[in-house]
Design brief:
The protein is mainly β. The protein has no helices and seven strands. The strands form two sheets. The chain has a four-stranded antiparallel sheet, with no helix packed on it. It has a three-stranded antiparallel sheet with strand order 1-2-5, with no helix packed on it. It is globular and about 40 Å long.
Length: about 100
């Protein structure tokens, strides 16, 4: 199981609705068997005291990109303002970002 560490967004980031943002992750320790793996990026949120990620699986931020690229640009969707959003990178395992605001 390969779980790259997300490096952006980070805690305290704020994304304006409709803006283009770059989500990044560290690929320095990628095993050769994961080289051609594709990924999906989902938006979710985690409320204090909960472990539920409330992932929006019906509307991925991005899909079909190669994880080895280490980055993908997304357009921030029209969502309610919150300060506990996360993005989750799914390849052969999920990995969540720090909380950020939209």
């Amino acid at each position: 199981v390969y779980r790259p560490q997300l490096t952006a967004p980070v805690a305290g980031d704020s994304w304006p609705v409709g803006s283009e943002q770059t989500i990044t992750w560290d690929t320095s320790d990628m095993p050769s068997e994961a080289e051609y793996q594709t990924g999906v990026l989902l938006l979710g949120y985690v409320e204090d005291g909960s472990s539920d990620e409330h992932l929006d699986i019906k509307h991925p931020l991005a899909s079909g990109f190669q994880i080895k690229n280490g980055a993908v640009n997304v357009t921030v969707p029209e969502v309610d303002p919150r300060s506990d959003y996360i993005v989750v990178l799914i390849g052969d395992s999920g990995n969540a970002s720090d909380k950020f605001s939209i």
